[in-house]
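User: My collaborator sent over this chain with a note saying "see what the structure looks like." That's all I know about it. Can you take a look?
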Amino acid sequence: MLQPAKTKYRKWHRMRHTEDRVATSGAELAFGSYGLKAISGGEVTARQLEAARKAVAHELKRGGKIWIRIFPHQPITRKAAEVPMGAGKGTVEFYITQVRRGHIIMEMDGVEEVVARRALYLAGSKLPVRTRFVLSHH
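Assistant: Without extra context I'll predict from the sequence alone. Here is the result:
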């Protein structure tokens, strides 16, 4: 699973409502011919991203190339069950990435369009954001 090797700060503020905005960078295909674009915003966990990657890898059967364009940098903390209020912030449980509307999540190349469409459809079904299959313009 993806997680940062080292972070400047161990615990972050939650940064809610950033997914409401439209992506300004990372909204165009940069590496592959096919892509999976978010058409709604949300938080994607490292586990969900790994599940999507596995679904694509399984569908491609060792063919083609995959680029994952998002990385879960943001730590999410949880307090243990039945812990009273106060006594600081909880421990880091997992990592997420904020995905904005219009951001490219995955890219793919080296396979036919039909195979890419099916693989990215399966990947999109593993993610908590609505997605769309996109083609490059060249």
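A starting point for your reply to your collaborator: The two ends are 33 Å apart (CA to CA).
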